[in-house]
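Fold this sequence, please.
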Amino acid sequence: MTTLLKNARIVSPLVDITKGHVLIDNGRIIQVTAGNDLPAADETFDLAGKILVPGFIDMHFHGGMGYETTSDKPEAVRVICEAKLREGVTSLCPTTLTLSEEMLANSLRNIEKYRLNPTGSKVLGTHLEGPYINPQCVGAQNPAYLRSPDIEEIKRLNAISPVSVVTYAIELEGSLEFTRQLRALGIVPSCGHTKATYEQFIAGFPCGMERVTHFCNVTTPLHHRKFGVVGAGFLHDNVAVEVICDKIHLCPEMIKMVFKFKTRDKILMITDAMEAAGLPDGDFQLGGLPVIVKDGVARLTSDGTIAGSTLQYDKGLRNVLEVTGLTLPEVIQATSWNQARNLGLTDLGKIEPGFLADLTVLDSDLQVASVFCDGIRKF
């Protein structure tokens, strides 16, 4: 059955069509037309001038609606992913925390059950944040479970459910070989929770390290004599950077600086959301550590360390547009196409023939109006 989405403003990387139409068949886009060129279809949705963009891809988030991605409650992943769909997110990488291998394995079993039968956003693969991080840079992770990079552990976890990204500290012993081994498995290495010097970080380039987790947070800063991982992220065009656009993890001026000076096709907008996302302020937890959320800011109860975000993806997009002054066509690739390419996916993140029909509809205020996954309206 063919489906037509008509009368939309289509915004996709290098594309901005005022009155466009998208024809879908068998879950894929087969034709994009403009003006009065309306293809015939079995089913038609009139978007009445709303904005049609590629479905958002959140590569780093820990939960929402009172649940963590690592929860042992069977409904957790489903509830979280259905909520993410309402943010315009069509695909995602559920992100774990620094936990024991047994706990991580159980988490991946629950993620895999959902991945095979999604009712909300689709799971591309899991993002393992930790447990191979610098003890001096744990942030809101649990130091009780820290350990050295272990490719055999990754292989065991990957056999349970696909692992897409692993965040670890590049300066740890054995990390360069670990980086090569991850690349050989088709897993993306990402540097985070790190005290790496600039020199230690770029030493990972030949091994395949070209990504920074939650840019500027829990990493070595830019300094005029000690350039750090932040400096490397700005200087080197091959380095992709995750950015949490909540105006808390990065102040508005830093968000503006990232979008002004960083290679635009290497910016990966994420939420790093924790279980409080979508809920009022109150008491929560992150990986077993108590968290208090006040005025939408999540902090560890023990010492006030920022503990993930409560950001919803579409709000992050509106924040970027507000603080940078950029247009939607200038920003949109940072919500989907960049993420797809970072994962080596060639059929997600654009509104073009041959691409999967994962699409988000925004109203004039850039609020999510509806969402399509594989051409089927899910919200």
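The radius of gyration is 20 Å. The mean pLDDT is 97.
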